[in-house]
Each structure stands twice: as structure tokens, then as C-alpha cells.
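Quick review question:
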């Protein structure tokens, strides 16, 4: 009794999965805000590194 039930259930699942005529919905934009914040943070990090390098160069010029 178990095998026919599984076979019928598998057949029904296969038919319902393949019978869609509509296009799939667009993928949700997951974590868009977090990605934007990360990109902004990377930009801030680059600015901090550039400012630190300029400060080191200025200190080296003063010591020479």
C-alpha cells in the first residue's frame, strides 16, 4: 500500500511542477541595504588609508 501512494504522489508533484505557463517571479533583492552600506564603508576605508598615507608623508618631510 505504501508504494502505490508514493508513486501517485510523485506523479502528481511532477505534473504540477511542470504545468506552469507563467514566468517565475523576479528574484528578491536580498540584503540590498546591507550591500550598499558595505560599499560605502569600503569607500570610507579607502579615504582613511589615503589620509593616513598623506599624514605619514607630511611627518617624514618634517623630520628631514
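Suggested answer, residue by residue:
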Amino acid at each position: 500500500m505504501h508504494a502505490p501512494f508514493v508513486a501517485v504522489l510523485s506523479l502528481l508533484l511532477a505534473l504540477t511542477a511542470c504545468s506552469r505557463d507563467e514566468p517565475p517571479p523576479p528574484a528578491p533583492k536580498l540584503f540590498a541595504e546591507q550591500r550598499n552600506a558595505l560599499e560605502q564603508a569600503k569607500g570610507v576605508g579607502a579615504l582613511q588609508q589615503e589620509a593616513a598615507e598623506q599624514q605619514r608623508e607630511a611627518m617624514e618631510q618634517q623630520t628631514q
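Why it works: The longest helix spans residues 32-63. The radius of gyration is 30 Å.
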